[in-house]
Amino acid sequence: MRLSPWWRRRSGLGLAAIAYVGVDYLRHLSPLWHGRLQPLLWTFFAIAAIIRVPVYKHWSSELRSALPFIFSLVFMLSALLFEAISVRFVTVVLGLDWHNAAQPLPDVGQWLLLALNEKLPQTVVNLLRARIIGLHHYLMLFVMLGFSVLFDSIEAPGLGLGARYMFTMGVGRLLRAFAFVSTILPSPRPWCASSRFNVPAYPHPWAQKYYVPYATDSYAIHQVIHNDIAYADPGEYDVDFRPNWGSMSFLIDFLRPTAPDGSTPWYHLLKKAGGGCNDLIYSGHMLVSVLTAMAWMEAYGGLSSILIWFLVLHSTQREIRERHHYSVDCLLAIYMGIFLWKMIGLFWPTKDASKNKRLNKLEKVQGRLMQAAKDSDMDKVKELLKEVEVSNSQVKQNPKSTAMWLFSGATIVFTITMVLLAFTLTSDG
């Protein structure tokens, strides 16, 4: 039986997403079948996409979106670099002694999940604890959403959707870095820093001056508030190891390498910053999942988007349950993901301004065009069609496009300013 266009549009991509997540979960249930089915599934996806490429009709629209796509990619990678430096900084600035001594904050959300473990059937608890979906799954689901434009599952251009996704991700990552670097919270896993990072045990001299004297003395904190200056001189402190990183030596105060670490290039330390210990408010993993769910819901919709939101909720409780994040981190990530996607959507340029302009003009002259056709007045028909084309050629730059570029430029300038400010503050140590 021949499938209808509605079935292909509303079910094909959803079934592909379910197949991808389901086959990948077999790695936990049956590694043997996972090893057999996953290559077959990816081969099928690749062949289907290759077959559709020659008959794809929207290449001109994709080319117009190529420049915003490249800009958004560079912007997102720059934001991730800034975030990686910030992740390392909030871990090393107070030293390992602080991490080992700092108690995790009380988390009512985790208490609730532990209480539910005692009330719910064990089968349900096992389902809640199952590692059904992870960060890479959400990223791949969005890639599948973007490529589904080849099958007319979503509206072209796919590169335009990808550009908006990456730009929103970059903004979200920058705001996240500014949040967690502003106030350093103790990790829900006290052993995290010692197991992941090889850093000095003592705080950075900058942190010693402004934090250590008041950490446990309530009277000293009162004095700091009253005088609004450093309460005491920390005295003598160990000198940090300073490797020779040439023009990148300004990163030493942020990354604080030890002698073994300093023998490797600076970017090797940033690789270890992935999945830090104190980059808590708000959760980066949950931001990715929410942005994927928002993009899927807006571009595709249907029951599959509802399923993805259920997976987002499952990921949320797992992040809290496994103590990767506090409950507030995950809740804020959900709020911010929805807010950023909607907010940037207000500034993002329309998919095809010329097409919309042409359709609006055609709607205005529709009555006259039909009358001219009835009268067999071909000259009038040509005149009206020419009027539509002239209006299309006079399309001005979309105000949303201008606002988006101004917004992105301001974001980049703000990022550079914050980096220079942080460098200035720490370089006096």
Automatic annotation (TrEMBL):
The chain crosses the membrane at residues 12-30, 36-55, 67-90, 135-154, 166-185, 293-314, 326-348, 403-425. It comes from the Eukaryota. The keyword Lipid metabolism applies. InterPro entries: Sphingomyelin_synth-like, Sphingomyelin_synth-like_dom. The keyword Cytoplasm does not apply. It is a multi-pass membrane protein. One of its GO terms (molecular function) is transferase activity. Residues 276-342 form the Sphingomyelin synthase-like domain. Its main location: membrane. It is found in: Membrane. One of its GO terms (biological process) is sphingolipid metabolic process. GO terms for cellular component: membrane. Keywords: Lipid metabolism, Membrane, Sphingolipid metabolism, Transferase, Transmembrane, Transmembrane helix. Belongs to the sphingomyelin synthase family. This is Sphingomyelin synthase-like domain-containing protein. It comes from Cinchona calisaya.
